[in-house]
Amino acid sequence: MAAPDLHPIAHENLGDRVAAEVLRLIASGEFAPGDRLPAERRLAEMLGVSRVSVRAGLQQLKAQGLLTAVRGGGTRVAEPPTGADPALTALAQIDRGSLADLLELRSMLESWAARRAAHRADEDDIAAIELQVERMRTASGDRAQVDMDFHLAIAKASGSVVYRHLIGVIRGTLFEMLRYNRDELFGEREDDAAVMRQHEAIMLAIKGHDGDAAARAMAAHLDWVRTHYVAAGLFP
């Protein structure tokens, strides 16, 4: 993992300043939900402050619910609240029609995310997206999970902590949708080939930093999914 781009801390109100700097990194997406922070000693070295100041700053963010302690030592960025997610996932399992609503929301949100990823993705982000496309191509792993990982890689590449939190909240339901799509709805060999082409088009547009093309490719993919939902009677 590349060293985060930390800003030096002025030697005043150090605990508050440490908290502000870590919060800046969370807000910018440098530290994402679930990411483990560098050890206190390493953070102290990077910020040019004492471990006492680092500990004080991290404690402030823990008290606000932004960081959580890791069993055995260390600190992670808190995951978004998922209290409603199990109920929503259960609804998706028993009422496939609810997936139609989610698909329409995805059409708006993920086209935006693909456009933003095309504008903001760095080499590491693009490599992560390419990796998932290669896994898809070689059938390396569960198809639904690989599909999920592809869309999560785009979310990370978007650089939007707000979008990543939103995806975190609906993550279980999104996975249920992708599992249904890949294991039940797309039953033909040509369906898999079409999904592969569509994901490659999204990846190439992001890699080429073409925001309009990325948004169009994502919208085209989800419109294609919609035709299957219509055929299955999931839209009124």
CATH architecture of the largest domain: Up-down Bundle
Global geometry: elongated
Q: Compute the CA-based radius of gyration.
A: 20 Å
Question: What order do the strands of the largest sheet run in, or round the barrel if closed?
Answer: 1-2
How much strand content do the residues show?
Answer: under 5%
Cα end-to-end separation: 47 Å
> Mean pLDDT, as a whole number?
86
SSE pattern, N- to C-terminal: HHHEEHHHHHHHH
CATH homologous superfamily title of the largest domain: GntR ligand-binding domain-like
Number of strands: 2
| Low-confidence segments | none
Number of helices: 11
Provide the helix percentage: 55-70%
SS-derived structural category = mainly alpha
CATH topological fold name of the largest domain:
Four Helix Bundle (Hemerythrin (Met), subunit A)
What does this structure look like?
This protein is mainly α and 236 residues long. It has two domains: 14-77, Winged helix-like DNA-binding domain superfamily/Winged helix DNA-binding domain (Arc Repressor Mutant, subunit A); 85-231, Four Helix Bundle (Hemerythrin (Met), subunit A). It contains eleven helices and two strands. A two-stranded antiparallel ribbon has the order 1-2. It is elongated and about 60 Å long. The protein starts with 13 loop residues before the first helix and ends in a 5-residue tail after the last helix.
